[in-house]
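wait is this the right file?? whatever heres the structure
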């Protein structure tokens, strides 16, 4: 196995480790998909908000597809459907790009995949995709965590060369449980105590109990950097680094929140054996096929080109 630069879950107490990887591999040039200032912000803060990435017709297409997926779960792989803790409401649908032609087209869209390739400095593939749905009154919180800690320990992602994109499909407001981020936290790796049991994912996708940072670490990071909660209308895209500390509150409003969530990993960073688990998690959570995406340009429509 490769040297573990980010050991976690092996010690009884947490440790704050420095990051050994660049946040961005991008060097601005004329014709780059994002501005120089946006590259600098992503490198500094670990996240970026792009507004009006998709137009009204494209959003309508994605919303219709979201309604179809949520309305007919029998057409989906049952293992990819995650319900709310203690309830039957759908919390997430994983591997949406493999179960929907429209979501596959979204994942390959130049406006997303092209930006991911630029920021990561490599060809990319979809490590994970899902539809996150936080229903009105019923949507539970997602506790603070770094995705990379789980992807590293349980999936075998060797380095911090991946990023996530949340495509807003319903308005995200300050009140309906928007994504919360700790800017700058991408530069510190917070180790987690405790060894996750086998098949931990069956519970962690509903409520995570292992791979959760301790309160002292979260307090230090939040006091050092603050907390932001980017909001926006449908068509907004929030990009954040794989090691960004993030979470979200529950939704007690009548206004549901729906986002398409896409994780792009550099092909050179393809998964290895898990660093702290006896076996890798299933393919629908962590793709082990690193076939590069071919970005597609043009308007996203319901009809194939």
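ok assuming it is, sequence goes like this
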């Amino acid at each position: 196995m490769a040297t573990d630069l980010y050991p976690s879950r092996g010690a009884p107490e947490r440790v704050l480790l420095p990051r050994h990887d660049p946040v961005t591999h991008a060097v601005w040039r004329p014709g780059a998909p994002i501005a120089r200032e946006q590259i600098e912000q992503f490198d500094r803060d670990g996240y970026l908000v792009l507004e009006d990435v998709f137009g009204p017709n494209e959003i309508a297409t994605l919303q219709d597809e979201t309604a179809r997926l949520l309305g007919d779960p029998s057409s989906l792989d049952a293992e990819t459907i995650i319900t709310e803790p203690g309830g039957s409401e759908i919390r997430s649908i994983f591997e949406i790009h493999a179960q929907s032609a429209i979501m596959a087209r979204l994942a390959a869209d130049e406006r997303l995949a092209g930006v991911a390739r630029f920021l990561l400095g490599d060809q990319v593939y979809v490590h994970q995709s899902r539809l996150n749905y936080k229903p009105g009154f019923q949507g539970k919180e997602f506790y603070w965590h770094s995705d990379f800690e789980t992807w590293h320990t349980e999936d075998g992602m060797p380095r911090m060369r991946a990023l996530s994109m949340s495509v807003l499909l319903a308005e995200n407001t300050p009140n309906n449980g928007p994504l919360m981020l700790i800017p700058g936290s991408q530069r510190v790796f917070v180790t987690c105590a405790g060894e996750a049991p086998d098949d931990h994912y069956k519970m962690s996708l509903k409520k995570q109990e292992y791979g959760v940072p301790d309160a002292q670490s979260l307090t230090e990071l939040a006091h050092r950097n603050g907390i932001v909660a980017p909001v926006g209308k449908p068509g907004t895209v929030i990009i954040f680094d794989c090691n960004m500390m993030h979470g979200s509150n529950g939704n007690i409003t009548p206004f549901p929140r729906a986002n398409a969530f896409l994780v792009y990993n550099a092909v050179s960073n393809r998964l290895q054996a898990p660093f702290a688990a006896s076996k890798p998690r299933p393919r629908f959570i962590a793709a082990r096929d690193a076939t590069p995406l071919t970005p597609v340009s043009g308007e996203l429509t319901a009809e194939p080109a």
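The helical segments are 36-45, 56-71, 96-99, 101-108, 110-120, 147-155, 201-204, 215-225. so i think its the right one actually
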